[in-house]
Amino acid sequence: MAARLALLLVALTLSGCGVGKGAGAADGKLFVLNCSGSGDYCDRAGVCGTPSAPADYSLGPGFFAGEPIDDLTQYSGGTQSRMNRITIRLQRSGKQVESNDVLYFDVVNSYEVARCVRGREVPIAGQPNQHDYDDRYCFRASPTGPGRVRISVVGGVLHSTLNPRMTCTRPVAATADDVFPEDSVVQTVDNGAWESWIEFAEFGSAAQNDRPDPTSRMPVSPTFRIDLDQRLYASGFSLTLQDQKVVTAQREIRPLPNPDIGGSLTGWFDFSLQRGQGAQIFP
Predict the structure, then answer these.
(1) What is the pTM of this model?
(2) Mean pLDDT throughout 250-264?
(3) Residue 265 reports pLDDT greater than 70
(4) Can you tell me the distance from the alpha carbon of 113 to that of 225, in angstroms, rounded to the nearest whole number?
């Protein structure tokens, strides 16, 4: 705990000091078959991972970046609405993503994530308060705690993918998995006990923990976005990783291929959004 607090202090000190600065971790178990010319992925102790017994893996992120995108969505009524998204990257180094180990968090709907982080409630006379967020994708253990967001391939508001291109010469990708709904209908899960999730304590200006009463918090604007110099602090995440080709076969209702990559990761990150080469795709 002391070491983690020290890293958090470093992150706060570095905040706003330059592109790629931040702190975090991503550790777990991984297997990659035919990772390179020398064979399967093996950890530093020489233990090679298998689907039944993945080996130790540490991303060791040293570069943190966010790419905000104004995503126009066309609705059937003919009107357009901005569903702002942001892609968060944890990289082993500041090198190009094509030759790096990169963990992506693709927030495809910043508005829904912001509503979860804010945790606003609407009082209804004679009834329990109504949550101003979607219980299928959001869980809050306390009014001032972090908002836990579901990572779901089907109908999700947030996706996550690991590309270990520095570790492996073979191009493979592992997607954060969730219980796959055969009818494509995403169900609520008690206590946020999802296969993959991330908890945001700070998501730009979304949190309003200075207002302990959730009913006093302001509604999140549908055009919510993360601005420069704002903080992205995930106090924790837990990912169940599955081969991307297996997930694709599930969605397309095809026979499932044998996975070449899989495992699990847990971790956290803390950095402020900066503009600059290697951090964002726009100048």
Answers:
(1) 0.87
(2) 92
(3) yes
(4) 10
Dihedral sign computed on CA atoms, order 31, 33, 36, 38 = positive
Q: pLDDT tens-digit profile of 190-221?
A: 999 999 999 999 999 999 999 999 999 999 99
Q: What's the pLDDT score for residue 35? A: 96
Alpha carbon 140 to its chain centroid, in Å, reads 17
